[in-house]
């Protein structure tokens, strides 16, 4: 890989979190010409990135850009940063934001690289950022897409979506978050973009379970397809646009996460499918598996909106030990009668599905609808 450094455009940015995705995104930013400092909680990790240009714990064999800097001092990492990219485990976001707050520049944009729902509140990551940091929604952005860290760190081409309620903010973040192997699109559908990243993890766990249980490609393809319907129904019920779930943040991320051995969620599901208990799986996984933590909160949010998510519900039962992993595949729907297939939100031939789709449409109209969220380059 070339170590040639591109010309800088002067944008000073910080990345909070030096795990696999945080370090990879710091590399993306540096390779795009930004002036990047990454914050690592452990001084020895910060020293390895700063001096050795390696992160051997999370990205073995990957050379990091010469220009990339690292520190274990949060105040130094955030000093002068115009954009702050946050990549920490979703369940520890709130506590991390509290220590970020005193050092955050008053006009800085905050960008979430996380894909999770807070267990205690059911809030999306951008909502937690808004609540804790008191940052205006127009200065918050989220990034999601088919982004397996190690592949990108090895400079294999991919794309992602940068979403913000402010198109100007989305474009500003996207202009920094791109280089010859990483392309960023933009949209204003923050809800759909975030929920796409959350929900695909749950379906990827289901795919892993049936894979571990010995089922083949037909079963996995069926779950991916029906899982996308569940994802779209859930997201649209919460105000998202269905087009977003058909794009990089939905279908694209779902495909990558469901089929790759690099996916922590897929790996965790495969271990469950092979008969390991949840505690044993958690011990074997060296990094946070966001899908396992999000199952409960997502199902609570789904019930509150009257959205049926049979595949995710079966994942919950497997996690609880009340459903044999081999029984997840035959139960792709909870309907007692044949229903029409829906490949997009609201398209169905079955009466019960039509009623549900119409009800959600009326609810959306009552709540004022929303702005288009299509991906734009």
TrEMBL record:
Sn-glycerol 3-phosphate binds at residues 115, 145, 200, 253, 263-265. NAD(+) binds at residues 17-22, 149, 264. It is an enzyme of class 1 (oxidoreductase). Substrate binds at residues 115, 264-265. GO terms for cellular component: cytosol. The active site is at 200 (proton acceptor). NADPH binds at residues 20-21, 41-42, 58, 115, 149, 264, 290. It catalyses: sn-glycerol 3-phosphate + NADP(+) = dihydroxyacetone phosphate + NADPH + H(+); sn-glycerol 3-phosphate + NAD(+) = dihydroxyacetone phosphate + NADH + H(+). Pathway: Membrane lipid metabolism; glycerophospholipid metabolism. GO terms for molecular function: glycerol-3-phosphate dehydrogenase [NAD(P)+] activity; NAD binding. GO terms for biological process: carbohydrate metabolic process; glycerol-3-phosphate biosynthetic process; glycerol-3-phosphate catabolic process; glycerophospholipid metabolic process; phospholipid biosynthetic process. Coiled coil: none annotated. Pfam families: NAD_Gly3P_dh_C, NAD_Gly3P_dh_N. Residues 189-328 form the Glycerol-3-phosphate dehydrogenase NAD-dependent C-terminal domain. Keywords: Cytoplasm, Lipid biosynthesis, Lipid metabolism, NAD, NADP, Nucleotide-binding, Oxidoreductase, Phospholipid biosynthesis, Phospholipid metabolism. It comes from the Bacteria. Residues 13-168 form the Glycerol-3-phosphate dehydrogenase NAD-dependent N-terminal domain. It is found in: Cytoplasm. Catalyzes the reduction of the glycolytic intermediate dihydroxyacetone phosphate (DHAP) to sn-glycerol 3-phosphate (G3P), the key precursor for phospholipid synthesis. Belongs to the NAD-dependent glycerol-3-phosphate dehydrogenase family. NCBIfam families: PRK00094.1-2, PRK00094.1-4. This is Glycerol-3-phosphate dehydrogenase [NAD(P)+].
């Amino acid at each position: 890989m070339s170590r040639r450094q591109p010309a800088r455009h002067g944008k000073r940015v910080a990345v909070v979190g030096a795990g696999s995705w945080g370090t990879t995104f710091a590399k993306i930013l540096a390779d795009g010409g930004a002036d990047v400092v990454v914050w690592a909680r452990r001084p020895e990790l910060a020293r390895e990135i700063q001096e050795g240009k390696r992160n051997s714990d999370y990205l073995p064999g990957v050379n990091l850009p010469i220009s990339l800097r690292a520190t274990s001092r949060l105040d130094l990492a955030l000093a002068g940063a115009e954009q702050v990219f946050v990549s920490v485990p979703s369940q520890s976001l709130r506590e991390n934001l509290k220590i970020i707050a005193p050092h955050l520049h008053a006009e800085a944009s905050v960008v979430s690289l996380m894909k999770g729902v807070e267990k205690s509140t059911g809030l999306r990551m951008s909502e937690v950022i808004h609540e804790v940091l008191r940052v205006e929604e127009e200065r918050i952005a989220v990034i999601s897409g088919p982004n397996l860290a190690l592949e990108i760190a090895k400079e294999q081409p991919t794309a992602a979506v940068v979403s913000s309620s402010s198109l100007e903010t989305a474009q500003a973040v996207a202009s920094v978050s791109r280089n010859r192997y990483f392309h960023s699109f933009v949209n204003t559908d923050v809800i759909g973009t975030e929920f796409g990243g959350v929900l695909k993890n749950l379906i990827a766990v289901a795919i892993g379970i049936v894979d571990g249980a010995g089922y083949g490609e037909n079963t996995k393809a069926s779950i991916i397809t029906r899982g996308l319907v569940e994802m779209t129904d859930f997201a649209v019920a919460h105000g998202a646009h269905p087009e977003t779930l058909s794009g990089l943040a939905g279908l694209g991320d779902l495909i990558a996460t469901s089929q790759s051995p690099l996916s922590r969620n897929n790996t965790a599901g495969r271990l469950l499918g092979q008969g390991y208990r949840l505690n044993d799986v958690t011990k074997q996984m060296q990094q946070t598996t966001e899908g396992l933590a999000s199952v409960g909160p997502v199902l609570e949010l789904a019930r509150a909106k009257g959205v049926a998510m049979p595949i995710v519900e079966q994942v919950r039962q497997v996690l609880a030990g009340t459903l044999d992993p081999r029984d997840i595949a035959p139960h792709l729907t909870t309907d007692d009668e044949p229903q029409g297939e829906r490949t997009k939100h609201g398209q169905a031939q079955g009466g019960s599905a039509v009623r549900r789709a119409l009800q959600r449409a009326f609810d959306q109209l009552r709540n004022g609808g929303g702005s288009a969220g299509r991906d734009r380059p």
